[in-house]
Amino acid sequence: MSLAAVEPDRPEEFAPALRAAVDASGLGLESIQRRLAQRGVRISVATLSYWQTGARTPGRRASLEVVAQLECLLDVPRGSLVALVPPPRPRGPVQRRTDEVTVPRFTEREAVRRVTEAVENPDSLLLGRLSHHDDVVIGPDRRLAAARTRIVGRAEADGLTGMGITQFLDDRTAGTPRLAVRSGGQVAHEVLDADHRVVGVALRYDEPLQRGESVLIDYELTTDGPGPRDASYDASCSLAVREYVLSVRFDPDDLPSRCEAYQLQRDGTPVRPRRRIRLDRRGQALLVALDCPPGTVGMAWEWDAPLDGRVSGR
């Protein structure tokens, strides 16, 4: 699962665009830093200077939220600077322990990108994520039976109109994904790529949010047909999340042999070592992660025995 961030294609344009916006505002970098601090955004004058000269660009050490706040402060169109932020540079390969649970890698990235671009709203980068809860149920056939998401966000600027939500399924045997929004606003439009199992909705808030106002976004992922037989579930977000909670419930008579939590930065670098998660007597695995940076956080699991060879009543 993903609230996918679209990677821009024009990295060389960010520095001159920021420099032009700063010049047009008539503000010095010290003044910009102070005004950002009043909005709760901490950044050094040196970093601002590096950004506008091109010596450095916002990457995994600087949230896109800072750039979004700069857009408001410098009075430029929303999303105009964020769209020019270059993607993080790939780092060297990370060696994986031989006893780790295998995490599937989604292969339809271009399809996800296309759907995300079609539903995304630049205002979503100005909605701070206070919490993100995913409740997942894995059925006795080891397929996803239900997945419900609740996000509590708080507006960091006035007049926010909505956000985009993108979900995808990696299992080619799964049915067509469907998204049902239960609260938080109305679906302005939906984009479905059934061939690649990607669905997105443009969510429009019932009323524009003013700075400091909160919203509860509640939606559910279902399928028109069998659920995916995936061995992991995660959230990929372009903004930091104060609290992420993932609950995965398995059939008590068919518990996985291993279950692990993982967390990656936007460039794929692990935030911390993976750790095993113990299932309770009801077959539930619980992951709680606090102050998550932009990136991916989730859980992977696997069984030693194939589905047909499981032992009933274990």
As for the CATH topology of the largest domain, it is Immunoglobulin-like
Sheet of most strands:
6 strands, mixed
User: How many domain units?
Assistant: 2
- Proportion in β-strands: 35-45%
N- and C-termini, Cα separation = 30 Å
Which H/E pattern describes the elements? HHHHHEEEEEEEEEEEEE
**How many beta strands in the DSSP annotation?**
13
Number of helices: 5
The helical percent reads 10-25%
Structure write-up:
This protein has 314 residues and is an alpha+beta fold. The chain folds into two domains: 11-84, 434 Repressor (Amino-terminal Domain) (Orthogonal Bundle), CATH 1.10.260; 109-309, Immunoglobulin-like. The chain is built from five helices and 13 strands. The two termini are 30 Å apart. This is XRE family transcriptional regulator.
In short:
This protein folds into two domains: 11-84, 434 Repressor (Amino-terminal Domain) (Orthogonal Bundle), CATH 1.10.260; 109-309, Immunoglobulin-like (Sandwich).
Element layout with pairings:
Blueprint: H1 14-25, H2 29-38, H3 45-53, H4 64-74, H5 109-119, E1 127-138, E2 144-155, E3 160-168, E4 176-183, E5 186-193, E6 198-209, E7 214-224, E8 232-237, E9 241-249, E10 258-265, E11 275-276, E12 284-292, E13 295-302
Parallel strand pairs: 1-9
Antiparallel strand pairs: 1-2, 2-7, 3-6, 4-7, 5-6, 8-13, 9-12, 10-11, 10-13
